[in-house]
Amino acid sequence: MKILYFASLKENLKTSSEDIELDNGATVKQLRVLLASKHGDRFFPNNILCAVNQEIANDSLIIKQADEVAFYPPVTGG
Question: What's the mean per-residue pLDDT of the chain?
Answer without folding.
Answer: 93
